[in-house]
Amino acid sequence: MLLTFLPAGADFSACVADYGSVTETLNAIPQDAGRVTIRLWRSIFEEQDGSLEIPADRGITEIRFEPDEYIPRVALPDLYRICANGIPLTIGEGLVFENTSIYGGACVSEGETKLDRSSVTIEGQVAFAFGGGLAENGARSTVTEPSLTVAENGIVFFEAFGGGHAYGSGSRVFSDKTNVLIDGTADYALGGGFAEEGGQSSCENAFVHVSENAKVAVALFTGGSAAGEESRSWVESGKAVLAGRAVSAFSGDFAFGGGETVLNADSRLEILGSGSSDSVYMGSFASDPGSDAFVNTSELMICGEVRDLFKRSQSSDGGEAKTLFTALFPCSVSE
């Protein structure tokens, strides 16, 4: 494994060392490390403990994981999460984390952690990506302004969330303003956070942008998602801009497995001239018995191509979804 340091305030210095695992390498990062690059070898795959925490006490200004220069593609199937603790994190091209969840914020299992901002960039391939943090076992994780970017060649196999992940009864995540940019590919793209198994996710303002050459392979949602009984995702207002391709696009949230979502104020979806979608819904999607999704006001502007337009929320398999008010706007070039 190679470890490169660019100390804060210095021009450039490099340190090359061999370690038995990524965890040991992270522990070896010195104080005032500045920008850090960790290059991964195949030989360390079996030695991972499944979870990585980026040290928050080493003066790291940003951290990047990438393959060793002689290995174009590196897969770590046993790594299930990386927690960046608010340090800007990049997963480089050539890395394949097929079972890994990436968190820009802190992963908290007790008490509460608050961060002003976080930044995650996916250039490689990961399972899930969250701009915010993870709260478990009744803990709380707050990131005021989380940011998530899926780069041009980046892939998120499942869901890309702007906010955090609240897992378990009493667990809570909060964001004031999220920002998601999809330049690559994701199955699902959501501006808000994810509440699961009784967790609670709150977001004041959610924003997601799918760029011209990007693709959302399943569904784009302006807000967040909730799964499981007593799980709740709450978003005050949200906006999604589709300049690329989304198979389905919703101006609301995604509730399933008995979860509840609320988009409390306005939710706006804009499909630009270069954008396209097979199905567009002015509202949310609720699937499975006990699932409930509510949108107050859904706004839609279409400049691109839409095959089927539904001026309502969508329910299936026993779920209930409702949009209270809808507003359809004509295409405006200025926007």
Low-pLDDT residue spans? 5-17
Distance between the termini: 48 Å
Taken from the alpha-carbon principal axes, the silhouette is globular
Strand content: over 45%
- Return the domain count: 2
What percent of residues adopt helix (DSSP H or I)? under 10%
- The secondary-structure class comes to mainly beta
Provide the residue-averaged pLDDT: 91
Number of extended strands: 32
The largest pleated sheet is described as:
13 strands, mixed
Enumerate how many helices there are, as a single number: 1
Gyration radius (Cα, Å) is: 20 Å
Can you walk me through this structure?
The protein is an all-beta fold. The chain folds into 2 domains: 65 residues, no CATH class; 250 residues. Helices cover 2% and strands 58% of the residues. It has 1 helix and 32 strands. Strands 1, 2, 4, 7, 10, 13, 16, 17, 20, 23, 26, 29 and 32 form a 13-stranded mixed beta sheet that branches. Strands 3, 5, 6, 8, 11, 14, 18, 21, 24, 27 and 30 form an 11-stranded parallel beta sheet that branches. The protein is globular, with a radius of gyration of 20 Å. About 4% of the residues have low confidence.
Indicate the topology:
Elements: E1 2-6, H1 22-27, E2 34-40, E3 51-53, E4 60-67, E5 74-75, E6 81-83, E7 89-91, E8 95-103, E9 107-108, E10 112-122, E11 125-130, E12 134-136, E13 140-150, E14 155-161, E15 165-167, E16 172-177, E17 179-182, E18 185-190, E19 194-196, E20 200-210, E21 215-221, E22 225-227, E23 232-242, E24 245-250, E25 254-256, E26 260-271, E27 276-281, E28 285-287, E29 292-302, E30 305-310, E31 314-316, E32 320-329
